[in-house]
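Checklist before submission:
- one chain only
- standard amino acids only
- sequence pasted in full

Submission:
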Amino acid sequence: MSRDAREASSQILTGDLYCPRCQKEVKDPLTCGDCLSTICRQCGTALEQVDELGIG
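Returned file contents:
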């Protein structure tokens, strides 16, 4: 696993993620192997950190 992939994985584990399309917290996100973005398993939308949204 590359350094970038490890850093992305640690970010996922340290904060809750929120899907703006499904409008709910996501506990089991997918991580893109190319760009390392985290996406919702249900709709494929890029996820946001809850603490950045001010709703957590």
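Reviewer check: The chain has one domain: 3-53.
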